[in-house]
Amino acid sequence: MAFVFSSKLKAFINTTFLLLLCFFFTTHIRSPSPSFNLATLKAPKGDGCHGLQRLQDHHSKCLYLKTHIPCVSQGYVNYLYIFYCVCERHPILGYMLLALWLLVLFYLLGNTASQYFCSSVESLSRELRLSPTIAGVTLLSLGNGSPDVFASIISFRSGSGEVGLSSVLGGAFFVSCVVVGIINVCASSSSSASRTARIDRSCFVRDVCFFIVVLSSLLAILLVGRINIWGAMAFTSLYFVYVSIVSATHFCRDDKYEDLVVPILDDEELDEPVSGAKEVTIVSNSQEDDHLEPSSWTMFKETASFYISWFLYLIDMPLYLPRRLTIPDVTEERWCRPFAVASATLAPVLVATLWNSKRNGMGTREGMTIYLYAGLVGLVVGIIAFRTTKKDNPPKKVLFPWLAGGFLMSVLWTYIIAEELVGLLVSLGYIFGISPSILGLTVLAWGNSIGDLIANVAMAMNGGQDGAQIAISGCYAGPIFNTLAGLGLSLLVAAWAVHPASFVIPVGPQLFEILGFMIAGLLWALVILPRKDMKLDRVLGIGLLAIYLCFLSLRLSQSLGLMQV
Prior knowledge:
Elements: H1 2-28, H2 58-67, H3 79-86, H4 91-127, H5 132-157, H6 161-189, H7 201-224, E1 226-227, H8 229-236, H9 238-252, H10 267-289, H11 295-324, H12 337-358, H13 365-388, H14 400-432, H15 436-462, H16 464-498, E2 503-504, H17 509-531, H18 538-559
Antiparallel strand pairs: 1-2
Helix pairs in contact: 1-14, 2-3, 3-4, 4-5, 4-14, 5-6, 5-9, 5-14, 5-16, 6-15, 6-16, 6-17, 6-18, 7-16, 7-17, 8-16, 12-13, 14-15, 15-16, 17-18
């Protein structure tokens, strides 16, 4: 009993330490300040970049950007300057560059979360000996929702809070309505086992009712219009209440979904299809010998495949290498000792670079001192990593420092990419004359949620009874985490910055509309699914999709000026 208690205390202390470090990063790393002379440049108070809309040609807009500080976008790239000044004579090129970079940022955000962040989270859950149920509602939700969480925090810290509010609520609305709706429509139309699958009633009612409570609490906060640090802490702590309820449900009864984390097929079952696949390959090769395919065409295909592979490799390398050299990765399939030593050495240098860039210390004595200390720390850690690791396999003991380093560096990279993505969306809002909240509600929310759509639909269609349960549960547990952690931490960081005063929340009519439609979708699911004996049903799916389409039609009408609220 003492061993169990000490292990749980150790897990709690380690988890708390990681979360405090993440909070330190998000509260102390500020957005880059513009390098302009404040004595010579003046901007109308409250004007922001809206003066761009009153100008007609790109040349005048370029001059406006050079003389107005508020138009310097968040992030590390001034997209408005690139579009109106660099691409002044070629606007089509500017549109293409921004669109391509938007796709690249979405790819980097998703790839960093899936390849680095989620693997670190999964390994940490094993190292901390968390039960699958607890890991699912904590670390797994953190891994899946990290893009929304960091995008929301970045938008609040950069003064574009409505982008964060819209992106988190838009993503939660998309998952709880569109993804659940598509799962129900596809399952009811298929002939697989998912058509007759029944969802656990108690888990479903628990998750949906708690989500309604969360949205009602957020509605009350938005009606007040401001929040202090204690209110933000209370709202964020609702997630711990949810985890406690899930844990109590898990420990008070035998959770029949506990074994879902175990591979479905054991080793003996896996051996059979593998050997069968080998036999098929042998037969296929023997048939190829008699095939009258011209050798020149075969050589052409092989050569083309070779060059295409190298072309894709060269394109991906600039996106892959910086993260690989700075994020410690001790997974079995990606272990590489040179990369591990390099990441241990260069990670402190990246942290120092980010710190100096945010606080305008790149060329100062203070900045050079930070670089010196970071370089010394990296050198010592790199030597330790080199002496304590092997070439052939990752370390098996003392894994927590490696996993903690991978977790924190993946958090840092996610933070950097999310900051750049928010800055680009805000700039696109000014370029197209669209409210940034609309872009957060659509582009950012859809981009961050497309992975949930693909994964959950595939799980529900191919996983049978268990897969349907996991998919539906994930469609509610994930949005609960994103809302409480994403918006909760964002409000906490914003309230912390103005403490002891209260933070004024950027509230618009669209926020009340989306909350109303979201609660309507949850109530629809709460009524229809029990009436259908907890079976996935077309009526439930079509109703949820109709609710989401009605909301989009309303927002589109308001954006085009066809309807005023």
